[in-house]
């Protein structure tokens, strides 16, 4: 996917869940540094020299995978299962520490230790069983199921721990103009503009509730199927109160935007434009009403814009009557009406396929005709792609033009990441 979220956009909780709120422990070869408290990715990127070492020692460093000699497919399968857990293939701080790529390279190295066709075949058959590959329709459906399964696990764990219903999921979905929605996804893809709405609490801090939900979502999603390893692939999570507040704030700001800008946006949104800046006169005007830093900054408003567009024009995978009624009250607000950041509606109307998706059908259809060695190399690259460490020369991963970067820069002043799925 071409991701249009800047590096500082979401809370990406990564703590050992059984020891949260305990003192940090010394890192061993198979254990991440632990921390207490809730911090956002925005905090780490903006405070590189001011991180609270007393409470936190996490930098986004991938865990080194403990492994000996891999002499059988079963041992390789065991290690691949481990890679599905959080943190082993995280790319979150690659822009800070380039050497982290070497850790992931070492983590993947067990894949190079299967030599016989028999062992490779056993591994490939297991890969196909777990991921549903090379059936891209089944693979895409599997990714959607993993998204909801991870969310429901987070809901259950948090509600049980707090003996509340604050973490009840009210709605979840995504922008289905991505590879998953087009039913052309590969294992370890992410999903565009994914979102989850939870109930929240009248008494607790919504920010803490969202952070706790995201932490358990991270721990309970199989990264081999649905990857959250990229800096900005994590779903947006909002409580009802947060949505209401953001609607109110953006509506107040929108009231001073000239009506001709809104009318122009309505007309433009009917057709797809390669120039995403030109496709968003309303949001460019809206972003000028907010500052780059502080509460309700440009970044937050931009993320909310992607959320509202996915809610209105994307695919809903889980919904409740409560949220449907809530949406009736807020769905007419300007940001719901005019957000066109992803151009979901226009892409859907034109049945547009990104260039990188157009050759996947043929490549996946030819998979079964390949020799075992070629199949295994193909599978290795799919596995590595969950952290973008695949061979970029493989035609199945050819990138298109990043049309989003100019838009993100225009709105927030930050660059976007080009993430492929």
Task: Provide a concise account of the structure shown.
Helices cover 43% and strands 5% of the residues. The chain is built from 16 helices and 4 strands.
Provide mean pLDDT, rounded: 81
Low-confidence region ranges: 1-59, 417-421
The biggest sheet, with number of strands, parallel, antiparallel or mixed sense and barrel status, is: 4 strands, mixed
Alpha-beta content class: mainly alpha
What is the string of SSEs from the N terminus onward?
Answer: HHHHHEEHEHHHHEHHHHHH
**Could you state the oligomeric state of the chains shown?**
single chain
Strand order of the largest sheet: 3-2-1-4
* Helix coverage percent: 40-55%
Keywords:
421 residues, mainly alpha, 4-stranded mixed beta sheet, 4 strands, globular, disordered N terminus, disordered C terminus
SSE map:
Elements: H1 41-46, H2 73-83, H3 100-108, H4 117-131, H5 136-162, E1 169-174, E2 195-198, H6 206-219, E3 236-239, H7 240-254, H8 259-268, H9 281-287, H10 298-313, E4 315-319, H11 321-330, H12 334-338, H13 344-350, H14 360-365, H15 372-384, H16 404-412
Parallel strand pairs: 2-3
Antiparallel strand pairs: 1-2, 1-4
Helix pairs in contact: 2-4, 4-15, 5-6
Describe this structure in words.
By secondary structure, the chain is mainly α. It is built from 16 helices and four strands. It has a four-stranded mixed sheet, with helices on both faces.
